[in-house]
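During the second year of the project, the team shifted from modelling isolated chains to modelling whole assemblies. The rationale, set out in the original proposal, was that interfaces cannot be judged from single-chain predictions alone. As a representative example for this report, we include one of the complexes processed in the last quarter. Its constituent sequences, exactly as entered into the pipeline, are reproduced here:
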Amino acid sequence: MDYGLTEEQLMIKELARKIAIEKALPIRAELDETGEFPWTVVKACAEANLTGIGIDEKYGGIGGGTLEYCIATEEISIVCGGIALSYAATGLGTMPIILYGSEEQKKKYLPDIASGKKLAAFGLTEANAGSDAGGMQTTAKKDGDYFILNGTKQWITNGGEAETYSVIAITDKSKGARGASAFILEKGMPGFTFGKKENKMGIRASATRELVFQDCKVHKSQMLGKEGQGFIVAMKTLDRTRPGIAAQAVGIAQGALNEALKYARGREQFGQEIISFQAVQHMLSDMATQTEAARALVYAAAREIDSGSKETSKMSAMCKLFASDTAMKVTTDAVQIFGGYGYMKEYPVEKMMRDAKITQIYEGTNQIQRNVIALELIKEMAAKK
Amino acid sequence: MNIIVCIKQVPGTTQVRINPETNTLIREGVEAIINPFDENAIEAALQLRDKHGGKVTVITMGPPQAANALKDAIALGVDDVILVSDRAFAGADTWATSYTLSQTIRKIGQYDLIICGKQAIDGDTAQVGPGVAEFLGLPQATFAVGIEVNDGVLKVNRLLEETNEIIELKLPAMVTVVKQINTPRMPSFKGKIKAKNAAVTQWNAKEINAEESKIGLKGSPTSVVKIFTPPPKGGGEILSGSIDEAVDSLVKKLRDRKVC
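Output from the structure prediction step:
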């Protein structure tokens, strides 16, 4: 389908596909086994300037917005959702700096992220603060010109591999939702260490670790936005990056569809290729239709965000919800079409199914997305009266 | 340090099809790419430039659409590109191609090093690089897996079949590289934007002062008589029975064929 992409967007798509096929494809099965970080792919993304998407040219990036970021993430995810996440998560970690960073902070951090010299990560989730981010326990206590951070962030993608971290911590518990603030932290700061690398079901080529803060002293100049703005920084960031997760899901679904088509044409049973059976044809048709519908919704949401619209929560939640549910369904059906072979690790579809599951969970579970959408619907209704 | 890289645009497939009547490659419907070994040559040149300064000029002889291969080279970060294109070049063999490229290099004039891929994946002759060196009277080193430059002396590590040979050459010189020398970098978005807006310099036979009798089909001392796919090797035969029986049977077969 022609989505009316610009010449520049098509260039990004072509570059990302080249990286996916030449760099990610040969190592995806191995990295899924070992859980090693895909540095060669990340380096290729840096060489291709893809780490500079979303970052203004004056800070060494290539400009572009959510749609460009989605296109790159989708292309890499077609080959490997885990490897793509290591790329996409640096975009998530950078977003708070792009949205709320001071000129000084942008100059200090964005050029190295754009050039791929440094990766970024975003620290919000905690053991007792998942869907309920309000349950956060990491504190940042003011001490003169500094804040002292204590607490543990959990399941942080790129944790340990990234150099630059956008972290949300409670600066004033009594103020509830207005009591959190966002900070930029750097790997190697005294009092900032990492927990063990998590052993995950899928997206195993991405690194997930705890961020541990023990009396970690951060200068106030490292605060993003104003004191008490932490939750807003987090929510606005996630509104903008959710389409990236949705694009990852679309890529995973497309990858599984491609594999299923190829297999259905080659596999013979009852003396004919299984693609000639209507039962298989209808499954493939549904998979293709759902994947295309998800892509259309993701691109529409990305374009709405890039147009500067303030009302991005609903579209952003809708595309993440729909694309991730699609990815789960399409990858499950791909395994079904492969039959017993699909269950084996010799073929890539079982991995795609494992990779798809997380897209329904992270950056807000799909139940939370439905809450967001419902809340927006109710608001819209109320506004009409 | 000024480096000239000679590249060739080739069909982007290992399933090359031949037109049996003309004995030439069928290029229709096949994506054209930079010859993979030439990508290593470009990378080697860019690495030397990044270390020693200077500029990298990429040249190719080919039809007008070969400009696309040169634009791909710009996207990789080379400084300058030149397309040598003329109907009179058509049908050139390796001798005429080497002459044409050497005339182009003469016209460019200033250079310290010429780098080529060890061979093109379509013709597989590995003759053009050395041919260019001969026409220009330059020292040459083929199959380089390492290139270093110190005080005007080129140190080349050659990958031979069973050994490596390290030799020194005076600049200017010509080197061909193997794929083990490096991993070509990714084209960049910024490079692609630059390539999109770049104009490709184009020279014809007259502009490179090429003698008519030395170019194209007319200037080619060799011609392809026939290209064919050899019949596949037949399957082997597995001898059964005890070891003694199998050995007897094998010896008999070898004697029958008069190999022992």
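The domain at 121-230 of chain A is CATH 2.40.110.10 (Butyryl-CoA Dehydrogenase, subunit A; domain 2). The radius of gyration of chain A is 21 Å.
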